Fold:
Amino acid sequence: MTAGAKSALLIRMRPAPLPADYPPPHELARRALLAFILTFILARTTVLLIMARRIPNLYFFLSDTHVHHLNYGIFLLAAVGAYTLLATPDATAARRTAFVYGIAMALTFDEFGMWLHLGGSYWQRASVDATVVVAALLAFIAYATSIEKFEARHRRAFIALGVAVVAFVAVLYYASEYLGDVAGPPLRELELASSP
Structure:
């Protein structure tokens, strides 16, 4: 292949430039983060209300199998991935897609413990831990200044934030261990009593 042919091939393989009004990654990450947090809160609240019999049982059963909401998240993630791969969303569609992506991620990671143990209780600590990690990553993408623009004060703030996050994770870990010992058994009993 000649140098000219290689150059032409590389030009054809280069993706088309994004439109000027296309949202930057941090804006899309903010939308995904908002949807992620709202969906996680709504999912946990709904499950608690169903288990406490404060609202009707909204669980979907296929024969005797409870279809958990992580399955909805997986299908939604597949749809979002296919849409962004096969269609080129414009600016408005990209914003909506980011929001739907956040919903799908929350539905899926809310039951992360069930990925690991293929069943078990909804109230596994691994699910909450995974949700915190995903939310932190989305928040980092959404709100971090690009590394090229870091100044000395940004580095100091970043180090302080890192120390604070590590301290928060330690506190969260020990608090969740304690709460799991105290609140875990009653929640598991409530979960078992609420399923038909």
Remarks:
- The longest helix spans residues 152-194.
- Helices lie at 3-13, 25-51, 69-86, 91-109, 112-117, 125-143, 152-194.
- The beta strands are 60-62, 65-67.
- The longest strand covers residues 60-62.
